[in-house]
Amino acid sequence: MARMIEYVAIHQQERFKIMSAAIVRHRFSVDDYEQMIQAGILTENDPVELIRGEIIEKMSIGDEHCACVNRLNHILSRRIGDRAIVSIQNPVRLVDSEPEPDVALLRPTPDFYASGKPQASDIVLLIEVADTSIDFDRDVKLPLYAEAGVRELWIVDLQAGRVEVHRQPDATRKYLDVQTATRTQQLQVAALPDVTVSVSELL
Question: Among candidates 47, 58, 57, 52, which has minimal Cα distance to 28?
Answer without folding.
Answer: 52
